[in-house]
Design goal:
Transcription Regulator spoIIAA; 2 domains; 5-stranded mixed β-sheet; two-stranded antiparallel ribbon; 23 helices; elongated
Length: about 550
């Protein structure tokens, strides 16, 4: 197993200048991560300090062990919906178990080298997920933005909006003003300075204003974090949840959702980062690091974590080029939590709602969504299916159906590129695949048929091949199956080929294979087809196959 954290390679030629750049980037990213960690923790249905614990612990582990130089890990908006649902149904203990199982799954994915496979999930599915999550996050923040007195909200999307409609008369103008002002500050701050995070400016400004309104002017109906939560800024104690077979069985589908979502988001973030800094991350090492982080974080009361693209880009834009920046970011967050943690109770909930609405807007990718709607019908169907499943049902169903759609689309496209041809009179000579550049025609002897399979010989093509054989209905003395353009063969293909050989023997028809590459040949040996057919009947190219066919015809005569 090739497990090589980027930290080890980057420290070999590490310089003082790079440390200063990483230090600056780490401090800035730590400050940027503070309001987001608090907001994600609260929106996920846990206490704010648990969002901070996650950012500190996961941020350190992902940078220390990860396969990307600049990836910043922590809680992200993508997990809000799934985490909130788990907490409501299974409690915090259930969330801890599901997160740990997901961590084990991520480690297994890395060990099995599935990193490169996950990166190729169809783009419409990814956009459908993220757009659906964005709309769901926005929906969850309407209550705090408007200051509605709804009580406990229902879990599903449609009933949330019905509840908002019933309680629209309870809008709190002060909360609405704080929320809108927060959104405007976040949107306008980059126009003044791109280095200062708008979310932090919004939190500082609105917290001061709300504090003054409450203390000096007696405005008490603006809810703050302290009104809803008792914040404990001290270091968390390690406590492993009680894991049993029943809990694992119940939470396995949810854990799979967390693992897949974490893998997709972290690898997409790392890929985007590669394009900016001109580097190449190690997908499998990154998955292992994400897995370790998600196994450790629940022990200290944290929530699921993954690579965060917004914080990763902030790191890059401020000069971070090694995992040291990510480690420093975790240290900065830890210091803020320990020494300034008590001040977070004064942050208004409407301000956090404004921050999350901006996060949802950035996640929505509405321009990309709009552009994809102009693509072919299959892409539009996949996009809308994953989007609607995410919004109306839940992310677990959306990911399961989305991955199933991805597999079906992949198989369909592979099947479309694969073909089966038949030659009875003449056939092309062996081309470069079989080591011969001559493209002249070869004469096919009487009583010989040549079938050429182009593309992977998997179960879809195996069925197509079988149908072609049945449609022709001829009974030649020799059938040559030309496999020069078959990159691999699966168990169904092997089974169909074996059946063909056995059925042909009953009809006194000899099967010859031509142009079998080394990988396919190895498979044929393993499944016993070479032994069944005879090594002399597996030829390296069409010339040899036709010579062998002529020998057999002469011997039969």
């Amino acid at each position: 197993m090739r497990f090589q954290p980027k930290l080890l390679s980057t420290l070999k030629n590490y310089s003082k200048e790079q440390f200063y750049a990483d230090l600056m980037a780490g401090v800035i990213v730590g400050i940027v991560a503070l309001p987001l960690a608090i907001a994600f923790g609260i929106a996920s249905g846990v206490t704010p300090e648990k969002g901070l614990f996650t950012a500190v612990i996961a941020g350190f582990i992902i940078s220390f062990l990860g396969g990307s130089k600049v990836q910043i890990g922590g809680p992200t908006g993508a997990f809000i919906v799934i985490v909130y649902g788990i907490v409501q149904e299974f409690g915090v203990a259930g969330l801890a178990i599901a997160t740990m199982i997901a961590g084990v799954m991520l480690i297994a994915m890395g060990l099995l080298k599935l990193g490169s496979v996950i990166k190729y999930i169809p783009y419409p599915i990814v956009v459908g997920f993220t757009s659906g999550i964005a709309l769901t996050i926005f929906t969850t923040q309407v209550k705090d933005l408007l200051g509605l007195q709804t009580g406990e909200l229902p879990g599903d999307f449609i009933h949330k909006w019905i509840t908002y409609g019933h309680f629209i008369g309870t809008i709190n103008i002060w909360s609405l003003g704080v929320g809108i002002a927060s959104i405007l500050i976040i949107a306008l701050t980059p126009k003044i300075s791109k280095k200062i995070p708008g979310s932090l400016v919004a939190i500082v400004v609105m917290t001061v204003i709300v504090y003054l309104l409450r203390e000096k002017f007696g405005v008490q109906n603006i809810e703050t974090i302290g009104d809803r939560f008792v914040i404990d800024p001290s270091l968390p104690e390690a406590a492993s949840p009680e894991i049993n077979f029943t809990a694992i069985k119940t939470l396995l589908p949810t854990a799979f959702t967390i693992a897949m979502l974490g893998a997709i988001e972290s690898l997409l973030s790392a890929t985007v980062a590669d394009g900016v800094i001109g580097d190449k991350h190690d997908s499998n090492t990154e998955l292992i690091a994400q897995g370790v982080a998600n196994v450790v974080v629940p022990i200290f009361g944290g929530i699921p974590a993954t690579g965060a693209i917004a914080r990763t880009m902030t790191n890059i834009n401020n000069g971070g080029r090694t995992p040291v920046a990510g480690i420093i970011h975790a240290g900065v967050l830890l210091l803020i939590m320990l020494f300034l943690g008590n001040l977070t109770k004064h942050i208004p909930m409407a301000c956090l709602a404004g921050i999350l609405i901006i996060v949802a807007y950035n996640m929505s990718e509405w321009r990309t969504f709009k552009a994809l709607m102009k693509n072919q019908k299959s892409d539009v169907a996949v996009l809308l299916t994953t989007f609607l499943l995410t919004v109306i049902f839940d992310l677990t169903i959306a990911i399961e159906i989305g991955l199933l759609l991805a597999v079906v689309l992949f198989l369909r496209r592979i099947s479309e590129t694969s073909s089966v041809s038949i030659f009875k009179n003449e056939v092309d000579k062996a081309d470069y695949v079989e080591g011969n550049l001559d493209t002249e025609k070869l004469t096919v002897p009487k009583d010989v048929e040549i079938y050429e399979i182009e593309g992977p010989f998997f179960f879809g093509v195996a069925s197509k091949f079988e149908e072609t054989m049945k449609q022709i209905g001829d009974k030649p003395k020799i059938r040559i199956i030309r496999m020069r353009k078959v990159p691999f063969i699966d168990s169904t293909g092997s089974h169909n080929l074996e059946n063909l050989i056995r059925m042909s023997r009953k009809d006194k028809i000899q099967i010859l294979l031509s142009g079998v590459n080394e990988k396919v040949h190895t498979t044929l040996i393993k499944v016993g087809i070479e032994e069944l057919l005879g090594a002399e009947n597996i030829c390296s190219n069409i010339n040899e196959a036709l010579d062998r066919a002529n020998q057999l015809l002469v011997s039969k005569k």
